[in-house]
Amino acid sequence: MSRIVMHERNKPYLVKVGDKELHLCACGLSENKPYCDGHHMKTTDEGDKLYLYDHEGNRIEVSSFYKKE
To answer: Which among 13, 14, 20, 50 would be 20 to 30 A from 37, CA to CA?
Structure first.
């Protein structure tokens, strides 16, 4: 079954293990998951809107199909 997974951060999680720092992807766009590869930089100007990103990294704005009252 397909699912949409929301990734709401536009920066990685920093995890310290001993004397090492790991940067874990939190935006969902990294091509090197679970590690951050910098693709979150595409998300810095999203504001309050909701977007999907396709496999080529193109951004698609998502709008509700429910009628606003």
So the answer is: 50
pLDDT in tens, 15-69: 999 999 999 999 999 999 999 999 999 998 988 888 888 888 899 998 877 766 6
Torsion-angle region of 26 (φ positive above 0: left; ψ -120 to 50: alpha; else: beta): alpha
Q: Which residue has the tokens 């809107």?
A: 49
What pLDDT is stored for residue 4 in this prediction? 78
Token pair 């397909």 is at which residue? 2
User: 61 CB contacts (<8 Å, ≥6 apart)?
Assistant: 49, 50, 51
Give the C-alpha separation, 51 to 42, whole Å.
11
Pairing of strands 59-62, 50-53: antiparallel
